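Section 5: illustrative case.
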């Protein structure tokens, strides 16, 4: 990887188009000057043109020379690429599951761009995708993609109101900009306060986190817009803020509020006080910005990270294993037959674990939609098929405790 990095640095530093652009500009300047001379005095045309010939030829040669360097830079870069990824072919289209759902793919891309705040790119993309509707291609899983399922049509067209989403994300980015760049908490606090009830039902601490940071900001000498003002008056401003704003937090955050207000006693040496961690926390702004993004997206019914980004990252992690598997299957002439299930474990980072997996303690099989986990009244959980086998439709004893129950009393467990 180091060799690749070096090549990229080289391309950025030396083998870039800067010199060519300068030389092309010089040529343009020369031609423009000649045009001005001729238009000012048409009689000077023959001599001006004659004078131009050699310099123009030279300038073309120079531009060509400039490009040679770039070509050789690109060449050695592609060599380094080939060397690094020599035995790593791209996956074949055999397992393609995407070509039959191009409108869903377009929707995912547009959503991703909107979520990243790339509004103009997103609107151009949506415009072009609408102007040239994609043609679904048959894939092994969807051999006849023209019979679109109703849910897919709905998802691709009906629920996707890009203008509304754009407005919502524009609001999110405005608040985030104020928060991160301007250190101005006011818009975020106003947003959270308007949704106080919903946030509280979700068990979110966002509103308190924002107000706590506002308290800390005032304490350390900033005003409400995030500007640094007289620090010696900070503690008093923070105290008056706590008096007017912390009332609603008394029940849920009594201890934190006590600590914050108690810290005012240490205002001269807060760095050595037991409350240090509340006041000197480098990552506090990033933390509230992350909480805010998470809550904002949740209230829109979306996950905090772009699903396309997560899918692409998980795919990149899984790809080497899957390619290896494909090779093994080719050698052994076996086929991957289990639908909707990967034949190997793909280790993903913990933040990519979204669903718990249930493995039946009796059959050792993984739960599926057809064979879901069922909980018996005693609280033990086994798979539906195991339950059917053990009970045969009548009262039966739990395999893990003396509890007896009827299969109709068992309840499906959703993970
Ligand atoms: Zn039991």
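Designed sequence:
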């Amino acid at each position: 990887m180091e060799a690749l990095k070096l090549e990229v640095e080289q391309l950025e530093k030396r083998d870039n188009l800067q010199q060519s652009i300068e030389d092309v500009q010089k040529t343009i300047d020369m031609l423009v000057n000649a045009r001005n001379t001729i238009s000012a005095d048409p009689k000077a045309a023959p001599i001006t043109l004659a004078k131009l010939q050699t310099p123009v030829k030279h300038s073309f040669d120079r531009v060509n020379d400039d490009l040679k360097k770039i070509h050789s830079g690109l060449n050695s870069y592609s060599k380094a690429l080939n060397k690094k990824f020599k035995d790593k072919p791209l996956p074949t289209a055999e397992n393609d599951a995407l070509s039959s759902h191009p409108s869903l793919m377009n929707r995912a891309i547009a959503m991703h761009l909107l979520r990243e705040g790339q509004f103009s790119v997103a609107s151009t993309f949506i415009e072009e995708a609408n102007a040239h509707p994609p043609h679904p291609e048959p894939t092994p899983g969807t051999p006849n993609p023209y019979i679109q399922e109703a849910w897919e049509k709905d998802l691709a067209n009906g629920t996707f109101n890009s203008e509304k989403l754009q407005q919502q994300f524009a609001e999110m980015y405005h608040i985030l900009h104020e928060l991160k760049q301007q250190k101005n908490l006011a818009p975020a606090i106003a947003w959270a306060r308007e949704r106080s009830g919903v946030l509280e039902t979700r068990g979110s601490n966002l509103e308190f986190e924002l107000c706590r940071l506002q308290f800390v900001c005032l304490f350390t000498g900033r005003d409400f817009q995030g500007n640094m003002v007289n620090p010696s008056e900070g503690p008093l401003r923070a105290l008056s803020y706590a008096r007017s704003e912390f009332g609603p937090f008394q029940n849920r955050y009594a201890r934190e509020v006590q600590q914050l207000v108690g810290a005012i006693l240490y205002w001269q040496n807060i760095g050595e006080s037991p409350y240090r961690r509340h006041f000197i926390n480098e990552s506090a702004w990033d933390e509230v910005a992350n909480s805010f993004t998470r809550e904002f997206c949740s209230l829109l019914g979306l996950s905090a990270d772009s699903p396309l980004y997560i899918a692409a990252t998980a795919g990149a992690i899984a790809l080497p294993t899957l390619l290896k598997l494909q090779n093994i299957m080719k050698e052994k002439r076996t086929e991957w037959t289990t639908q909707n299930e990967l034949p190997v474990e793909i280790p993903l980072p913990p933040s990519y674990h979204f669903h718990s997996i249930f493995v039946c303690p009796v059959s050792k099989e993984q739960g599926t939609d057809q064979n879901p986990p069922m909980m018996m009244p005693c609280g033990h959980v086994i798979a539906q098929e195991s339950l059917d086998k053990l009970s045969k439709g009548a009262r039966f004893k739990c395999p893990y405790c003396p509890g007896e129950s009827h299969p109709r009393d068992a309840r499906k467990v959703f993970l």
